[in-house]
Design a protein that fits this description.
Its cofactor is Mn(2+); Mg(2+). One of its GO terms (biological process) is translation. Keywords: ATP-binding, Ligase, Magnesium, Manganese, Metal-binding, Nucleotide-binding, Protein biosynthesis. Its EC number is 6.3.2.-. With 467 residues, the protein is α+β, with helices and mostly antiparallel strands. The chain folds into four domains: 148 residues, Acid Proteases (Cathepsin D, subunit A, domain 1, Beta Barrel); 99 residues, Rossmann fold; 64 residues, Dna Ligase, domain 1, CATH 3.30.1490; 100 residues, ATP-grasp fold, B domain (D-amino Acid Aminotransferase, Chain A, domain 1, 2-Layer Sandwich). Strand 9 and strand 10 form a beta hairpin. Helix 3 crosses helix 11 and helix 4 packs antiparallel against helix 5. Bound molecules: adenosine-5'-triphosphate and magnesium ion (2 copies). One magnesium ion binds next to strand 28.
C-alpha cells in the first residue's frame, strides 16, 4: 500500500461516510484490536445478479434510532464463519465499499455483522486504517462533529413512508428454495422482505402492548404481514409467535389457528368429513387389543398405516397382508407411536395430485408419480412431478378442504380412487420447488399478490402506505 506522507490522527470515535452505500454519515468506533471493519447490518439476504452473488442488507445508520433504514446492495467478496460468545456459528458476508473520513476516501473490506443493535453501527478495524491513520484513544471526533441538523438533512426523508409493504418470512432455513423464492418475489414486487428465524424471535405477552422481538433486541413493530412457514417440529413455538403477531394486528399467512388445525391429522380429517369431503376410510385406536377390529374397519389388507408425526412420506407403510398389517400396527404401538390405519387406494397406482391453493383458488396442480416399486408419490421418496389437468370436482375438493381448515395458502393432496377423488392431506407450508419447476408458474409471486390484495395494497398508490 502507498504510504501517505503524513498519517492522519483520529480518535476513538469518528464520523465517516460510505457514499456508494448511500450512507452520508455513520459514527464509527475506532477499534485497532479488530482486524476487519464491520457494519451492523440486518435483513441480510444473498441473491444472484448477472451470474454474481450479491447481498442486500439494511442499516440503521444512527445509534438509538430504528426508524431510519438505509437499504444497500453489494457483491459478496468473501464469507467468514464467526462464532459468537453464545457458541452459535454465523456466516458473515464481506463486501467492498468506499470509506470516506475527512477528505480522504479509499476502498475497504467490510464485514456485515449482527452486533449489539443499540451500540455503534460500525467498527473501524486496523486493516482499513493501516498506513493512513494513527489512533489517539484519548480523543474523539478529530475529523469533525456532525450536527443533528446535518443528520436530519441526510436521513430526514428516509423516515417517511416506504413505497412497498414490510413483509416478514417466519421460518427456519433461509436457504431453502421455497424461502428464497418468497423473499425474491416480495422484493421483486417492491416490498421490503425480512427473514425471521423462528428460534430467534421472542415475545412480550402484554394485554395492551404485545411485542415481538428479534435477536439482539430489535422490536418488530413495523410489519404489515408475516408469511408463516413453520416446520412440523416447531409447530408449537411457531404458532405461538404467529398468534403474537396476530394480537399486534399483523396479517399472518397462514394464521396460527389454521396451522394448528392442519398439523393435527386426526382433527383435520374430522374437519374434512364435517365439510362433506371424502377421504379414504380411516381408523384410529389406542389399544393393541383392538388391532383386529381396526383392520376390519378399513376393509382388511392390503392397507396403509400412517404415523401421525410422519412427513414427506416417512412413516407411511403399505401392509400387503393381514399378518403384515397386524405386525406393523402392533410394532408401532409398542413404540408408543400414534398411528392411523387407512384403506389402500390401489387403483391410484402410486399417483397422487398436489393442488396449490391460494386465497380460495387452485393456482397450479401437479401429478406426482411414485418411483417404480414404490406406492408413495412423495418427491422425497423418489417420485416425479408432471403437469396435470384436474377435474372441476377435484378443484372444488381442494378449495373446500383449504377453507375448512381456514388456510389462505395450502398444498392439498388428493388421490384418485374408483369412487372419485379422495382427500389425503392438507399442508400449510407447501413446498414451491416441485410445483414451480413442473408448471413454470411464479407461485411465490402469487402468494405475495394474495397478501397485497388482502391488505388492499395497490401499486398505483405506492407513494403511500396502505394503512
Ligand atoms: N390410502 C392410501 N392409498 C394409497 N396410497 C396412499 C394412501 N395414503 C397415502 N398414499 C401415498 O403415500 C404418500 C404419502 O402419504 P401422506 O401424504 O398421507 O403422508 P406424508 O406425505 O408423509 O405426510 P405429510 O405430507 O403430512 O408429511 C401419498 O402422497 C400417496 O402417494
Ligand atoms: Mg403428503
Ligand atoms: Mg403433508
Amino acid at each position: 500500500m502507498k504510504e501517505n506522507p503524513t498519517k492522519q490522527i483520529i480518535g476513538c470515535e469518528e464520523w465517516c461516510a460510505f457514499p456508494d452505500l448511500g450512507l452520508p454519515a455513520i459514527k464509527a468506533r475506532v477499534d485497532s484490536g479488530a482486524k476487519t471493519s464491520s457494519i451492523h447490518a440486518f435483513n441480510v439476504q444473498k441473491f444472484r445478479r448477472q451470474g454474481e452473488t450479491w447481498v442486500s442488507f439494511e442499516v440503521h445508520p444512527l445509534q438509538n434510532n430504528r426508524r431510519i433504514v438505509v437499504r444497500c446492495e453489494r457483491p459478496i467478496v468473501d464469507k467468514r464463519v464467526v462464532k459468537s460468545s453464545s457458541g452459535i456459528s454465523e456466516t458473515r458476508y464481506v463486501i467492498l465499499a468506499t470509506l470516506k473520513i475527512g477528505d480522504q476516501a479509499w476502498e475497504i473490506e467490510l464485514t456485515l455483522a449482527n452486533r449489539d443493535s443499540m451500540g455503534y453501527r460500525m467498527l473501524l478495524g486496523r486493516e482499513a486504517m493501516s498506513g493512513r491513520m494513527l489512533v489517539d484513544p484519548a480523543i474523539s471526533f478529530c475529523m469533525g462533529q456532525v450536527t443533528s441538523e446535518t443528520l436530519n438533512q441526510h436521513y430526514g426523508k428516509r423516515e417517511q413512508a416506504r413505497s412497498g409493504m414490510k413483509i416478514a418470512l417466519l421460518a427456519s432455513n433461509q436457504e431453502l428454495y421455497s424461502n428464497q423464492r418468497i423473499l425474491e418475489a416480495g422484493e421483486e414486487r417492491g416490498h421490503v422482505m425480512e427473514f425471521l428465524d423462528i428460534k430467534q424471535c421472542y415475545m412480550k405477552l402484554d394485554a395492551v402492548e404485545p411485542e415481538a422481538h428479534y435477536r439482539g433486541g430489535s422490536i418488530l413493530d413495523d410489519l404489515d404481514a408475516v408469511i408463516t412457514r413453520i416446520r412440523p417440529s416447531i409447530t408449537y413455538y411457531g404458532c405461538a409467535l404467529a398468534r403474537q403477531f396476530e394480537s399486534m394486528n399483523v396479517l399472518t399467512v397462514n394464521n396460527s389457528t389454521s396451522i394448528t388445525q392442519s398439523r393435527d391429522k386426526l382433527y383435520s380429517l374430522q374437519l374434512m368429513l364435517k365439510s362433506g369431503i371424502n377421504i379414504p376410510t380411516t381408523g384410529f385406536a389406542n389399544s393393541p387389543i383392538d388391532t383386529n377390529d381396526l383392520i376390519e374397519m378399513v376393509g382388511g389388507a392390503p392397507l396403509i398405516v400412517k404415523l401421525l408425526e410422519g412427513s414427506q412420506g416417512r412413516g407411511v407403510v403399505l401392509a400387503e397382508t393381514r399378518k403384515a398389517a397386524e405386525s406393523v400396527i402392533n410394532a408401532f404401538k409398542a413404540l408408543r407411536a400414534n398411528l392411523l390405519v387407512q384403506e389402500f387406494i390401489k387403483e391410484a397406482d402410486g399417483k397422487d395430485l398436489r393442488c396449490f391453493v391460494i386465497d380460495g383458488k387452485v393456482v397450479a396442480s401437479i401429478q406426482r408419480e411414485a418411483a417404480p416399486g414404490e406406492f408413495r408419490a412423495n418427491i422425497h421418496q423418489g417420485g416425479t412431478a408432471s403437469v396435470v389437468k384436474i377435474t372441476p370436482t377435484e378443484r372444488q375438493l381442494a378449495v373446500k378442504a383449504t377453507k375448512a381448515l381456514g388456510l389462505m395458502i395450502a398444498g392439498v393432496d388428493i388421490i384418485r380412487s374408483k369412487n372419485g377423488p379422495l382427500l389425503l392431506e392438507v399442508n400449510s407450508s407447501p413446498g414451491l420447488e416441485g410445483i414451480e419447476a413442473a408448471t413454470g408458474k411464479d407461485i411465490a409471486g402469487m402468494m405475495i399478490a394474495a397478501i397485497e390484495k388482502k391488505l388492499e395494497w395497490k401499486r398505483e398508490l405506492s407513494g403511500k402506505r396502505h394503512k
